[in-house]
Specification:
Structural class: mainly alpha
Oligomer: single chain
Radius of gyration: 19 Å
Distance between the termini: 47 Å
Number of strands: 0
Helix content: 25-40%
Largest sheet: none
Order of helices and strands: HH
Length: about 70
């Protein structure tokens, strides 16, 4: 049985495939975040993939004090 037939069979039975994984990376500085973003974009590019320009973001999350959780 070819892969295409198997996928059609599973989808016709109501099986849903999970969405792509959302990558979250924590960095120590904004500069490090931009460097890592560039490295990830280069790696994905070598595989024929790209980061989504609207969904890819660098955000600042406050550091949690010991015993607290940053949200």
């Amino acid at each position: 049985m070819s892969r295409e037939v198997q996928v059609r069979f599973c989808e016709s039975r109501g099986v849903r495939f999970p969405p792509a994984t959302h990558l979250i990376v924590h960095c120590d500085s904004e500069d490090q975040a931009w460097q890592l973003r560039s490295a990830i974009a280069d790696r994905l590019g070598s595989l024929g993939l790209e980061l989504h320009p609207v969904k890819t973001k660098i955000v600042c999350a406050p550091r949690a004090q010991e015993g607290e959780v940053a949200m």
